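User: I'm writing a short methods note and want a consistent example. For DNA-formamidopyrimidine glycosylase family protein, I'll paste the sequence; you return only the structure tokens, no commentary, since I'll be parsing the reply automatically.
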Amino acid sequence: MPELPDVEVFRRRLVEATTDRRIEGVDVLDGEVLATTRAELDRALAGSRVSGTRRHGKQLYVGLGDGPPLRLHFGMTGYLTTVADHDEPPRHTRVVLALSRGRRLLLVDQRKLGEVGLVDSADDDVAQRGLGPDALDLDLAGLREVLARSRGALKPTLMDQGRIAGLGNIYSDEVLFQARLDPRAPAAEVSRGEAQRLHRQLRRVLERAVEGGVRDFPRGWLLHRRDDGARCPRCGGPVERFTAAGRHGFRCPACQSREG
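Assistant:
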């Protein structure tokens, strides 16, 4: 599932594709991903230019001048890519934006769980969805407040979009691994020093993932070893699969023990 770093990469890809280009038309190949009508989408997009973008957690908002902003959510398998006019679009392409000067911006989504819609404003939509602060906007005091108010374990607390927007299964595991914190530990029992470590690694992991285009990950990340019995990249011990509040994840019992 695309998480904050993925959606930030998609945002930058969209900005690059649409800079100095006009949206000439929209072709909906599969209406199942629409959260609006084809006619409304065409009226909002055809002839417009992108006037700004905003990412909040896993949501991407695209300003269209005086018109309603476009909202993109990528579900489990969605992503944005660009092709030239004469190129064949990838399989599972659902929506095509025809751009001036011979380019097309594509929403590809195999499982069709993403959404393309129009909203009154990004701020209103974020509020209506009950989203917490974006993970990269969260300061240490905000994180400590989130943890103190939680009655659950660390991993599901970090993944709760109403508390912190943007983290999913993979990056919550990575952040907790880098912070050397047990994902099953009660969030409210995290010490001041642990919260500082968690906040530092939260920013570091997300920013590094974006910088690498969510492809080039450091060798010392758990992400490469997400398999029961794999070897921990830090200590060489076995990686363990666990469940916390119905959320599955991976941890190193030696590096992320509650006592350690």
